[in-house]
Write a structure and sequence with these properties.
disordered C terminus, rod-shaped, about 200 residues
């Protein structure tokens, strides 16, 4: 075997080994991206579940309020409109604009419901119903769950974004079309559960 043939065999072997390593790393990176993406989607589903739980709680209290014939209707109408808006938005977690609209709508719902509860203070008969008594305990727990779900979502997004942005995996992320995802940016002050007090005696 000539020296030239030996050099060609060595070069071919190195190229083949490099190709195989790149292929293995590419497959590993792709699988990692898929897993990270699915994890973000799963955790986002938990966020939506907790917001749905809150909306359901709000709906129960709204029904109680609607049954009060003399209740101030303008504030109630604002809550009903905010609830409709918040439940109509379909979020694509890969689209920062839909995520921002969802966050804004949830903030508006929470704010309008807080105003509704302030108005409810003027209706002692309404405040003493079992629905109101149960609601206060349940909404505090739900707001805490929402906070935890948003935190878990942001942690999943952080892991995913690091996977997408760190070299050399970012090369494969670009090849396979995986883009950075947006974090859940809550409105200022919304990290605290709303202070809804019914002053029940």
């Amino acid at each position: 075997m000539s020296k030239r043939s030996l050099i060609l065999i060595i070069i071919s072997g190195v190229l083949l080994l490099t190709f195989l390593l790149a292929l293995v790393f590419g497959i590993s990176s792709y699988n990692g991206l898929v897993k990270a993406d699915q994890s973000v989607k799963k955790v986002w589903g938990n966020v939506e579940t907790q917001y749905q739980r809150r909306t359901d709680l709000y709906s129960g209290v709204i029904k109680t309020i609607e049954g009060s014939a003399n209740f101030e209707k303008t504030t109630l109408k604002e809550v009903l409109e905010a609830r409709a808006s918040a439940t109509q938005i379909k979020v694509d977690i890969n689209d920062p604009a839909t995520l921002a609209r969802y966050q804004a709508a949830q903030g508006q719902l929470q704010s309008s419901f807080g105003r509704l509860m302030a108005v409810a203070e003027a209706y002692p008969d309404l405040k003493t119903t079992k629905a109101f008594q149960d609601f206060q305990t349940q909404i505090e727990g739900t707001e805490n769950r929402i906070g935890v779900a948003r935190k878990d979502y942001n942690e999943a997004v952080e892991k995913y974004n690091l996977f997408v942005k760190v070299f050399p995996r970012n090369i494969f992320a670009n090849i396979f079309g995986y883009k950075e995802k947006e974090y859940y940016q809550a409105s200022a002050g919304s990290e605290k559960a709303p202070d809804i007090k019914f002053d029940i005696k």
